[in-house]
Design goal:
This protein is mainly α. It has 16 helices and 2 strands. The chain has one domain. Strands 1-2 form a two-stranded antiparallel sheet.
Length: 388
């Protein structure tokens, strides 16, 4: 019975917290996160001065803020990686309900900062975007519900998670924030699939998403404008997509040189949603491939480690966090190269943004906590023993 619980990996009783943390953490993935943040600061040095000049601030005002927010994000990430999965779950549930309430009150107390979508709370010294903090909490809660449904006489957790998902998507669509709504639906679908959902049900849900998208296109000018711009055979060079496309073409393989790029002077979101265009123009395809490689490494390594996980909650929550991290990066880069319609989504740890950085640090910290090596046998060990 002891081997069934603890497997062949010995537990080291009395081992200090820091040595045990360092021995069990995925060091390569954590290093990739730090490198991404460093690249974000490097690109911020190029992309932020034009924005600071337009707003009357010091040239590196936004770089300093990004460094502060990023430092808080790295601390939050490291602290979260040291937590047990049970503690991460408890904090995730509390954080989810707090973020959900904040999201629900956005139409009353929120602001759009002139961007046409009420997504933020203005705090005077900065802003707060509830949806960024909602995502990791939502994944933890959904994984908890789905895992509970697999227990004998467990609650109908899958149905509860679907209800929660529908409520969140509705609130996000009302902002409107269809990009974050898609991320929530995607992460829930991945976890539901891993939890053993029938393919027929997933196909029906995909059909429902297409139907909802059709309704949004016909009833939301904001949504329709972005879809029409994406489907148009020609790109207006005076739009953000036009500037980004031209910058990527100008960069070529090796870029035009550090500080020599021009797109940052034309793109209002060069430091956030279109930061990859700045990277492509000044540093070329080489840096873009490095960034893609870093995101791929974190996502794939996490999924491979989770494949050996026996605890259903950890496996589901970790899969949701890894996939939403990778798909957000893919969407951001896909929008910049016009493979996807504009979404208004940041590139994790690279784009400027306090909410995005800190929430991303918490989410990846939880992912690294779930993928830590624990004193348990791999799931393959159990399957072999059952086959004997």
């Amino acid at each position: 019975m002891t081997e069934m619980v603890y497997g062949t990996v010995p537990a080291r009783d009395g081992e200090p917290i820091l040595p045990r943390w360092w021995r069990t953490i995925d060091k390569l993935s954590m290093s990739c996160v730090f490198i991404l943040f460093g690249i974000g600061l490097l690109l911020g040095l190029a992309a932020s001065p034009p924005l600071a000049e337009r707003n009357g601030f010091d040239a590196f005002y936004y770089v300093h803020r990004q460094a502060i927010f990023g430092a808080l994000a790295m601390v939050a990430m490291i602290v979260t990686t040291m937590m047990s999965p049970q503690l991460v779950r408890r904090i995730g549930v509390v954080g989810f309900f707090a973020a959900f309430v904040a999201l629900a009150f956005l139409p009353v107390f929120g602001t759009d900062f002139g961007k046409g979508a009420v997504r933020w709370y203005s705090l005077g010294f900065g802003s707060f975007q509830p949806s960024e903090f909602l995502k990791p909490g939502f994944i933890v809660v959904s994984a908890w519900l789905m895992a509970a449904s697999q227990e004998i006489n467990g609650p109908p957790g899958r149905m509860y998670s679907l209800i929660v998902t529908a409520a969140i998507v509705l609130l996000l669509a009302l902002q409107p924030d269809f990009g974050q709504a898609c991320l929530v639906l995607f992460s829930w679908g991945v976890m539901y699939f891993v939890a053993g959902a029938p393919i027929v049900l997933l196909v029906l849900l995909a059909g429902g998403v297409v139907f909802a998208g059709t309704l949004a296109y016909n009833n939301s000018e904001h949504f329709a404008r972005r879809i029409d711009g994406f489907l148009s055979p020609e790109v207006d060079p005076r739009t953000q997509l036009g500037y980004a496309t031209n910058a990527i073409q100008e960069g070529g393989f090796f870029g035009v040189g550090v500080g020599e790029g021009q797109v940052k002077w034309s793109l209002p979101d060069a430091h956030t949603d279109f930061i990859i265009a700045v990277a492509a123009e000044e540093y070329g395809l080489i840096l873009v491939l490095v960034i893609i490689g870093l995101f791929t490494t974190i996502t794939v390594r996490s999924l491979l480690r989770l494949m050996r996980e026996r605890d259903p909650f950890i496996r589901l929550a970790g899969t949701g966090l890894a996939c939403i991290f990778g798909i957000q990066a893919m969407i951001n880069i896909g929008v910049a190269v016009r493979l996807l319609p504009a979404k208004g989504m940041t590139l994790p740890f690279v784009s400027y943004g306090g909410s995005s950085l800190i929430a991303g640090g918490i989410a990846v910290g939880a992912l690294l906590a779930f993928t830590r090596t624990r004193p348990q046998g791999e799931i393959g060990d159990i399957l072999i023993q059952r086959g004997k």
